[in-house]
Design brief:
single chain, alpha+beta, three-stranded mixed sheet, 38% helix
């Protein structure tokens, strides 16, 4: 098993809830889902998001694996407000060189994004269809060379049209969503196949299924607690383990290389 395969295995177990203890006192994902629906309706009433067509009901045949009883299968579109970005006209110089970060999919790093090299202006934000995404938004590249690449915004930013951004609803732990998308990257890329250029459209993303854990809470020290947070910490360990194994392989390779060099040198000296 390669380091990447081990990492993927740990990620998969984490998002299935198999690496964490299930605690009844934390409540259920069903309760969280009801709260999310209430929040969604409030946001629509306040005209902060547009009312969208309800997503299809989930059938038993769609569920790819078993999850704990306190968890719930949901469509990803019910986890947050999803939207793609846009590219302000390059012919209008008043749209560029401002103070608003404008992310292209090449800027995605499969981690937290704190620096973006290109900026647009307030005028571009006002006159074009770009959307300003808040800190904590989860991003995914939908097509091109970076298809499936991910990121979490550490700063407010807009994006181009090749990037789909999710502003999670209250109660959705953005890091759990991030790691679920990472664990499902290959499946999403396969969903995008079929055309001249692979394309994971927004429609395919929002209709995909995700196991929703019970809500996580923040303690006074801001450390997240609960099943979702524990699953995320397990997923984060996969990065550490992958690094350890990669380091061990490199170190072992270097040690063997040095031994072989000394052995060849020793043999040469004996021959001479």
């Amino acid at each position: 098993m390669t380091p990447q395969e081990l990492k993927n295995s740990i990620l998969q177990l984490a998002i299935q809830g198999k690496l964490v203890e299930q605690r009844p006192e934390e409540g259920t994902a069903e309760e969280l889902f009801a709260q999310i629906q209430e929040e969604k309706q409030r946001l629509v009433r306040d005209k902060k998001i547009k009312k969208e067509k309800p997503l299809p009901e989930i059938t038993e045949d769609e569920k790819p694996f078993d999850i704990p009883e306190s968890w719930k299968w949901v469509r990803i579109g019910n986890c947050g407000s999803w939207g793609s970005g846009a590219t302000p006209s390059r012919t209008n110089s008043e749209y560029y060189g401002g103070t608003i970060p404008w992310l292209k999919t090449g800027d995605l790093n499969d981690g937290t994004i704190t620096e973006i090299p290109e900026y647009i202006t307030e005028l571009a934000l006002e006159k074009t269809s770009v959307r300003l995404n808040p800190i904590g938004s989860v991003l995914m590249a939908m097509y091109g060379a970076t298809i499936g690449k991910l990121g979490i915004l550490g700063i407010e930013a807009t994006t181009n049209q090749a990037c789909c951004a999710c502003i999670p609803y209250e109660g959705i732990y953005n890091k759990f969503l991030f790691y679920f998308l990472m664990a499902s990257r290959t499946a999403f890329i396969k969903l995008g196949e079929g055309g001249a250029q692979p394309n994971i459209s927004k429609e395919k993303i929002v209709n995909a299924l995700m196991p929703l854990p019970p809500p996580c809470r923040a303690k006074a020290n801001r450390r997240k607690t609960g099943t979702a947070a524990a699953a995320v910490r397990a997923a984060e360990m996969s990065d550490i383990i992958e690094s350890w194994i990669a380091f061990f392989i490199r170190s072992t390779y270097e040690l063997i290389r040095r031994i072989l060099c000394k052995f060849r040198s020793h043999c040469s000296n004996r021959v001479s």
